[in-house]
Amino acid sequence: MNEQQIRLKLSRLPAARLIRVAIIMQGVVEGIASKEDAVNFLTDRVSTGRVTLDRVLEAVEKVQLTQDAPASAGPDPRIDNALVEIHDRLKAAELKAQAAVEKAEREVQSKLAGVKSADSGLIAETIRAEVAKVFAPFKQESTPEALAEIAGRIGQFRTERAGDIFPVTVYAGVDFSDLQVGVWDDAEAPALVDDYVFNPAHLHQALIALDDALPHNVWLGGERGTGKTEFVTQLAARLKRKLVRVNFDEALERADFIGANTISGGDVVWAEGIITKAIQHPGTLILLDEVGFARAQSVSVLHALTERSVHRALTIAETGKRIPVASHVAFFAADNSNGHGDSGNFAGVREQNSAFLDRFGFTLRFEYLPAKDEAALIVKRTGLTPRAAQILVDFAGAARQQAKNGLLTQPPSLRQLFAWAGAVAKGLPPHIAFENAVINKFPADCEAELLALYAAKVDEVEFKGAI
């Protein structure tokens, strides 16, 4: 049996047991923080002949998950093992319930002709039963505090087809409409914008990244106005997940997003910051917006939170309290410079250290919408005619090229086009709307270039006739 076959066989085993066996064989916890770590460690042991695969399989079958961990294990691994096991069982239970429903549908097809999805009640009942089995022995020896910690880290959601939630699920011959995604029904989810245009390849990758209780973080790079922030917002809106947006700048202090001691009623008390609150809410998407402007000491605090590990947590120095990151919490980072510092258009943007960037499993590069789609969106948002909208988009395309050539400090954004179009649609003369929405947003030394582009690309007689 070659190494690939060994790895495949090990990857099919229960995560909690596999991790436990790897810890026992290694003798310490360090380096075995996930199922992937355990598979890598045990594959190496088997392929190098230090242990047989049969011996590993036997150990996985017989290992006791409730026995004491090694002294160097740090926080009680039984909690994390139970969480991993629960997650595996949740998926298995849902698949089991789905199979049962499909079998029933085949047997009584005539009676279930209108049924398109699994019986949610049966799924929920099966999941509850499976979770109860896992927790039964654990509850007998765990403190109420430990059980409360676990309960707070497990979220509640249902699954639906991606094609039933998102408007576009096909690209380059790939169809992910049947991909099962979690829908959270969180009351704090952002509002849905029907006309947001998803890049389907980006959407597919983001949904894959989120398909785990311990999700991958995602980095979003690209020019301003290319839809990075709105992408995460509308992803959260359609998945009905809470979204917490943290806007970074030079003035943002650790106390603002982590927390700080404060005075209340004459006493010194700890007040939680926005991120500290967010990580305790299962399923939350946390957007680190304009993270390129964050100071190094601010980013360093985020390392422990963005690490893809079952041990990810925030330890409050002032109180000594350890706050674990709840189930399914994921981080998105939006940065104009793609994490590699000032691109020439964004002064003050810092290059991020490789350790922080490495904590984001996937990087998505955002570009402006195709001209046809951008014009259609302007029409829908502002009521401008299609021909007039196309004139604005043609101008923007030329200006963006000049920005790439270094003749403009920055490209005009879609937000600026919305403002320009909206003002013109309501009767403001085109050149005045252009001055207020575009020229005045740029440094003074860009004015001549912008006016030249306006003269070349916008025929005011044609434009006024098209409005």
CATH fold-level assignment of the largest domain: Rossmann fold
CATH homologous superfamily label of the largest domain: P-loop containing nucleotide triphosphate hydrolases
SS-based class:
alpha/beta
The number of distinct structural domains comes to 4
Largest sheet: 5 strands, parallel
Q: Report the portion of residues in β strands.
A: 5-15%
Low-confidence stretches: 67-76, 341-350
The geometry reads as globular
The number of helices is 19
Mean pLDDT: 83
- Please tell me the CATH architecture of the largest domain by its name: 3-Layer(aba) Sandwich
Helix proportion range: 40-55%
**How far is the N terminus from the C terminus?**
71 Å
Compute the CA-based radius of gyration: 27 Å
How many strands?
13
Would you summarize the structure shown here?
This protein has 467 residues and is of the alpha/beta class. 48% of the residues lie in helices and 13% in strands. The protein has four domains: 71 residues, no CATH class; 78 residues, no CATH class; 208 residues, P-loop containing nucleotide triphosphate hydrolases (Rossmann fold, 3-Layer(aba) Sandwich), CATH 3.40.50; 96 residues.
